[in-house]
Amino acid sequence: MQGNMPPEAQEKIEELQELQETAQQVSEQKEQAQSALNESKTALDALEDVDEDAGMYREIGEVLVETDYESAYDDLEDKVDSLEVRVEQLEKQEERVEEQFDELQSELQQMLQGGAGGGGGPMGPGGPGAGGA
């Protein structure tokens, strides 16, 4: 089937595949950031129930280093804030990629329904199998 496909349509398909990969990567990054955000929020909530004089340690790599309550709390708050921003950025990026994907998919459908001419003119009745989804 691809042998009869115009080169422009093949390019659109390749762009769609690239966008699909990008969408997958962004989705995975967002999922990781959301998970880290949830963990940090849970730790911050737990820290609020801890006595401020309690001995505290933070993990740096594979080493635990002693710290004080205020530093630990401030660091967690900063981490939560930055992760919230990161998740928000990734959500916006995900939306942009989805919009680009939808636009490209529509262009491809119009190109393929328009026949070999591919002039981009008004679409006529698509006939059997011409629907979207």
Automatic annotation (TrEMBL):
GO terms for cellular component: cytoplasm; prefoldin complex. Residues 114-133 have a biased composition (Gly residues). InterPro entries: PFD_beta-like (IPR002777), PfdB (IPR012713), Prefoldin (IPR009053). It is found in: Cytoplasm. The keyword Cytoplasm applies. Pfam families: Prefoldin_2. GO terms for molecular function: protein folding chaperone; unfolded protein binding. Keywords: Chaperone, Cytoplasm. Residues 18-42, 112-133 are annotated as: Disordered. Its main location: cytoplasm. Residues 32-41 have a biased composition (Polar residues). The keyword Chaperone applies. Molecular chaperone capable of stabilizing a range of proteins. Seems to fulfill an ATP-independent, HSP70-like function in archaeal de novo protein folding. Heterohexamer of two alpha and four beta subunits. Belongs to the prefoldin subunit beta family. This is Prefoldin subunit beta. It comes from Halorubrum sodomense. The gene is pfdB.
